[in-house]
Amino acid sequence: MNYEMTDDQIALQNACREFCGNEILPGAVMLDTCSREEASAIMKGNLKKLGSRGYLGMGITRDFGGTDADMLTTVIAGEEIAKSCASTFITAASSAVYFGYALSRFGNDEQKKRYLPEIVSGEKIGAIAVSEYDAGSDEHAMNTTASREGNSWIINGVKSYVTNGPIADYFLVAARSDSGNVTPGEITLFIVGRGCPGFSEGELSDTMGLHGAQAGEIICNHCIVESIDVLGVPGQGADILGYLKNYRALFTAVCSLGISCAAMESANRYSKERKSFGRYINRYQEIAFRLAEMMIQTDISRLLIYKAAWELDNHSVEAVSAVSCAKIFSTETAALVSGWAVQIYGGKGYLKGSDVERFYRDAKFGEIAGGTSELHRLSIASEILDRYSN
Amino acid sequence: MEFGFSEEQIMFRDTVYRYAKNEIADLCGEADLKSEFSREIWNRLGAMGLLGLPFPEEYGGQGADVVTCCLSSEALSHAGIDGGHMLALGAHTYLCGDTIFQHGTEEQKKRYVPKLATGEWIGCMGLTEPEAGSDAASLQTTAVKKGDRWILNGTKTFITNAPVADVAVVYATVDRKLKHSGITAFIVERNYKGFSTGNPFHKMGVRASATSEVFLEDCEVPEENMLGEEGKGFAMTHQTLEWDRSALLAPVVGGLMFLIEECAKYANQRVQFGKPIREFQAVQHKIADMKIILEASKMAVYRVAALKDAGHTINHMQASIAKAFTGDWGLKAFSEAVQVFGGYGLMHEYPVEWFFRDAKLAQIGGGTSEIQKMIISRLMSF
User: Fold this and answer.
1) Can you say whether residue A364 is alpha, beta or left, with left for phi > 0 and alpha for psi between -120 and 50 degrees?
2) What is the pLDDT of residues B222-254, one digit of tens each?
3) What digits encode the pLDDT tens for the residues A214-225?
4) I want to staple B287 with a disulfide (CB 3.0 to 4.6 A). Which of A192, A381, B21, B123 is the partner?
């Protein structure tokens, strides 16, 4: 047992912290408040910057431009990105992890060669389009269909809340295959380019937070996709989504950890500058103990995330449960801690443009995305209850 | 980072768990009910070498590392050993025995450690006083050198194991004006003139550990029984913090494991409204919350242990996080366990009842949660 980071991990953490502090953090307020066009431009720039430093290729093999880092190392860097700008982290994760890992794990060589190097460098942006208005956590309720016609598939349906929808170049679109050699109703994933015939953007999502990570509908109206753009084999979609589930939950947790950490540090700094009734407010136990609680929960979030990443690296049977524990605790912590940060700032924290106000809006996302807290709790509990059912 | 245990550690843990489950656990409910420290339980713990784990073999111990000590305590609680006996073990081995082992002269170690390692002698540690709890440096017990003896005067309170102890590590000040740097440790045997203990307190939880006051009335301690150097006692109390924040918290981790299993079994069997209560999401969520708290506490506690094993001096931030989190969140989890059992959870027949009462101690003993938050907030210098 060893709780210490390797020298390489410490070096990476420091480098990533410095880089994000200089290159990503200064644009975070702008990303939150600017127009969509401006946000798209800043975000594309951010991804290229992250890509140039190798941060978008951490779980991808070297053949395709990645650094082949393990999950534990990846989340160490991820925390720094999320801490500097949660929107940038979510955009990067949607592209490099959800799109990138799926291709890396299930794509054939042609597909990997074609898409991964550009995703890793940040030149192109990926997204995953699974959710629909009436099918969120319950992906089996999906209505989008794919019908085989010769060597092509015809996709019809509307995907909602697609993160990176407005800026992505490539989408992994999940659809029910309703013909061909696939059992009716099985899910298949297709790589769909923005320029694909029949592809269009629908309504943009006007979100509470994470304004920089733009989301929106994508519409496949008789969208024609070649067979070579099926990811894996037809009908394998549920497996691929299952594989991604752990990563989506874990990276949502990392996003929340970054927010908690930023909110806690910001409130801590402020408590030492702000005087009230003649004393710095951190001299009041109400504030000091609240800050301690923020520190405790942030630190515990990090421990649970490291543990989950370590279990994933070890292909452990405990991984699913560990990811759920990390996901629930970190995301609920971010919601609490960012709220407490607003409280410590008082009126200033309620103003638009203040960091903690943004953290508070950004944080709520975590409890919903990557599997709601409720679903993860059910998953943890049923595993335990089944084990002791005799 | 590597969060797994070695094969040897896992095997040892399994052995302790099985032994405790088969040979000890059945005695614990009654001990709690009677609020009685059980010599029988103590002897069985001693027979397996579990009372002297950290000491080298030449002193009758097992030479276990800190992680293994934590695993042992985790396994014992997981098997259903009550918090009272776990606290007795903690005070005996880590607060008394290990303090003597770490700071004692060769003669002191040879005289006390082997007897403590087997459990033949029971040890306790006397720091807290009626007017000096969290603020330990304000202690009032005095030590005055007279010839070849130290004369101790004062009253210690809330001393775990005091009514049954054969030997005590007692902290006293040689000069109150010196505050911290006047505090000095002494090894005091029960039969020394002027040493006596009060009647056991009736406690909310950890009832099977015996707790009382210790009275030092012109208590005569031979000069060779000063432990460590004069004025160095306060630093010694700080070293025991590493145990306070690891091995003494491990029973909470094991207790959570035990109760999650008990709740899962119960929720599968108990039928209401025509179906097992496991079908109700409210019950499922409680079990999930307990599991999250278990995993989190485990990570926090073993971090302190692993860093001690790696030879690092205590990281107060991490140690206080382990203590505060395990204390505050642990209690919530134990409370949820009672809730799953409903009315039965209030009955002593079900271990959730006494585990819940025992869990309150973790928020108070060895530095309250509030003290931990005070320490944490002072360390937030960024």
Assistant:
1) alpha
2) 999 999 999 999 999 988 888 888 899 999 999
3) 999 999 999 999
4) A381
Q: Is residue A2 part of a domain?
A: no
| Span between the terminal Cα atoms of chain A, in Å | 34
Closest partner residue to A291 (CB to CB) among B299, B318, B377 is B377
Which domain covers residue A187, as residue numbers? 129-235
Which site among B5, B301, B315, B373 would you substitute to test the A interface, given the most A Cβ atoms closer than 10 Å to its Cβ?
B373
In a domain, A262, yes or no: yes
Contact criterion met (CB < 8 Å) for A385 and B268 = yes
Contacts of A388 in chain B (CB under 8 A): 261, 264-265, 268
Residue percentage of chain B with pLDDT more than 70: 100
Element (DSSP H or E) covering residue B149:
strand B149-160
Query: Measured between CB atoms, does A296 come within 8 Å of chain B?
Result: yes
Q: Mean per-residue pLDDT for A39-50?
A: 98
- Please tell me which residue of chain A has the smallest CA distance to B65: A1
CA A259 – CA A253 distance, rounded (Å)? 10
Cβ separation of A381 and B324 shorter than 8 Å?
A: no
- Angle (CA) B287-A75-A342 rounded to 5° is 70
Consecutive H or E run containing B291: helix B281-309
Which residue in the set A6, A293, A303 is minimally distant from B299, CB to CB?
A: A303
The per-residue pLDDT for range A12-23, each reduced to its tens digit, is: 999 999 999 999
Q: CB A329 to CB B292 under 8 A?
A: yes
Percent of all residues in chain B with a pLDDT value above 90, rounded to a whole number: 94
Residue A1 domain-assigned (yes or no): no
Single out the residue of B61, B51, B103, B109 nearest to residue B81, CA to CA.
B51
Q: Please check whether residue A318 touches B, CB under 8 A.
A: no
Task: Count interface pairs A-B at CB distance under 8 A.
Answer: 140
Q: Which residues of A touch B309 (CB under 8 A)?
A: 1
Q: Are residue A231 and residue A242 in the same domain, yes or no? A: no
| pLDDT tens digit sequence for B61-111 | 999 999 999 999 999 999 999 999 999 999 999 999 999 999 999 999 999
Position A178 scores a pLDDT of 78
Q: What is the pLDDT of residues B103-152, one digit of tens each?
A: 999 999 999 999 999 999 999 999 999 998 888 889 999 999 999 999 99
The predicted model scores a pTM of 0.96
Whole-angstrom CA distances from A252 to A39, A109, A218, A329, B27 are 21, 29, 22, 11, 46
Mean pLDDT confidence for B28-42? 97
Interface test with B, best of A302, A385, A387 (most B CBs within 10 A): A385
Question: What residues contact A4, with CB distance under 8 A and at least 6 apart?
Answer: B1, B307, B310
Q: Is the ipTM of this complex over 0.85?
A: yes
State both tokens at B36.
């009685």
- Alpha-carbon distance B379 to nearest alpha carbon in chain A (angstroms): 9
